[in-house]
Amino acid sequence: MIPSELRSGAGYWIASLRAMLRFDYGRMREWAAMLVLIQTMMGAGMALLYGFFYPHITPFRALYITTGAPTLALIPLGFVMLPGSVGQQKIEGTFDYIWALPAPRSAQATSTFLLYALLALPGTVLALLVAAWRYGVHLSPSPLLLPAVLLCALMAIAVGYGMALAISDPLVTNLVTNALMFVVLLFSPIVYPPSQLPGWLFAIHRVLPFYNMAVAIRAGLTTGVETQVMTSFLVLAAWTVAGCSAIAWTVTRRR
């Protein structure tokens, strides 16, 4: 047992973060590969499914569907799987046990944040590769792609984790995540141009993160397709700050 007077300072926080990373990875190790597989199937599978909606896939449609696949892969991990995992911990009672461990709450939250961020990347890349292979699309990656993917992954995980911590009832969290997936899969202009939506609906999506995730990643994979890239980055940054603020608020208030 570490004396209470030594449980402070940067050194103790870093040591706690390392310990929580080992602890969380040990809990996630058995199903981490399955999580990446599900994420890949979600992104690539939905990209393939949307292709069946069109009688003829034009090169522009193929490009739009392919470049939307990474966004479709990131959204379930951050907005569904992570909140679902936290909700399951609350139901089982392990959530309170983890928060009672002798480690700073901020280190515990950072551990979960980092592990899910790392898990988000393989499935995202695989979904893009499968979609590009299926539609025969030749992409033009730019240096913008890396910050776009990282920001989208961090935003999705920050908002999803913040929501899971701020909502005390796991059943409410489950309802919210299911509603989000309904909105994303049916009404978000991720794999089709926003011009196909009514103006009022597109105006709503301009301030939601899902459409802006697709814009940021598509801008890093293509040339000249997206023009309002900086606006999307600002919207995503605002959602990231909101998610991190929710995490910080919950961490500091929970007893």
Description of the structure:
The protein has 255 residues and is mostly helical. It has one domain (4-253). The protein has helices at 9-51, 59-92, 94-99, 105-135, 145-166, 170-187, 199-205, 209-221, 229-253. The radius of gyration is 19 Å and the shape is elongated. It starts with 8 loop residues before the first helix and ends with a helix.
Task: Write a concise keyword list for the protein shown above.
255 residues; mainly alpha; 9 helices; 0% strand
Write the layout of secondary structure elements.
Layout: H1 9-51, H2 59-92, H3 94-99, H4 105-135, H5 145-166, H6 170-187, H7 199-205, H8 209-221, H9 229-253
Helix pairs in contact: 1-2, 1-4, 2-4, 2-5, 2-6, 2-8, 4-5, 5-8, 5-9, 8-9
Please summarize what this structure is.
78% of the residues lie in helices and 0% in strands. It is built from nine helices and no strands. Mean pLDDT is 85; it is low at 1-6.
Overall pLDDT score? 85
Structure summary, number of beta strands:
0
Task: Detail the poorly predicted runs.
Answer: 1-6
Helix/strand order, N-terminal first: HHHHHHHHH
